[in-house]
Amino acid sequence: MDKLLALKMFVQSVESKGFSSAARQLNLATSSVTRMIDRLEDELGAVLLNRSTRQITLTDAGGAYYLKTRDILNAMADADESVSDRGEVPAGELRISVPVAFGHRLIAPHIRALLTRYPLLILDMTLSDDIVDLLGERIDLSIRLGSPAAMEAVISRRIGSFRRRVVASPEYLNARGFPDRPMDLMQHECLCFNYGAPQQVWTFADKGEEVRVPVDGPFRSNNAEVLREVVLAGSGVALLADWLVDDDIDSGRLTSLFEAFVVNPNRASSAISALYLPNHRGSKRINAFIDFLTKLLGSESHLEG
């Protein structure tokens, strides 16, 4: 029995929650997967998986075995990548995590250029606004907006910055009036990004002075693109990144307010950071993507730093 192949089949079956889906992922026949796992259980003298007509589940022995075998396969993959990643050109798989709207709007349109430049690179991009466990989720590189969460043994490189802009549609402003001062926003419908805090404060800074305005409104979302759509529909005022709304401002679909101020929610940072583990220092794949994104950010006139 090919023990390594058997381990791969077992782990894939667990993660795919079924033999058929595992077989599709491995480009094998379902019967081949089931037979190999049967042989693995016979060799071990233990049942690893409970089988039913609808699903498979781990036994107690299977759960412990899965954790060990997954670590073994991950370690082997890391060993292979550590060799291939020190070649002349970036090659192999690069697993990255980027914020949802940022990935859609700013990165996705330029992926073709990146892959054309590095034809041996395979990019696996996950979109998530959550804090990523780089080690546990096997993510090579995470791009974060704002202040990156302090994490032990994680390297953080600032690669750019952005500006947040207070925007509203002309229709909303015609109906509700233009706020003259930041404090006037307390009388407006402010549509907020949901950071999980019960009260959101927008901080307006100008020439060393700071004004903190508590804001509220009828709608919150944890997705910036959804907020943009709601603002475009005339439902209120929002604080959104320039890379998300600059085209709308230029076209007149949105109006930018308080341009003299630097505005951030709850004194948040406007940094764009790249996070990776120390064992990836010197990785050609990671450096290639960071260089690509740094140049991309530098080419955008609305990005600072």
From TrEMBL:
Domain of life per record: Bacteria
InterPro entries named among the record's database cross-references: LysR-type_TF_proteobact-type, LysR_HTH_N, LysR_subst-bd, WH-like_DNA-bd_sf, WH_DNA-bd_sf
**Keyword presence, Metal-binding:** no
PROSITE patterns associated with the record: HTH_LYSR
User: Pfam families this protein is in?
Assistant: HTH_1, LysR_substrate
**CDD domains in alphabetical order:** PBP2_CrgA_like
Keyword vocabulary terms for this entry: DNA-binding, Transcription, Transcription regulation
Q: Which residues form the HTH lysR-type domain?
A: 1-59
Q: Any idea which GO molecular function terms this record carries?
A: DNA-binding transcription factor activity; sequence-specific DNA binding
In the record, biological process GO terms are:
DNA-templated transcription
Q: Which family does it belong to?
A: Belongs to the LysR transcriptional regulatory family.
What is the name attached to this protein's record?
DNA-binding transcriptional regulator, LysR family
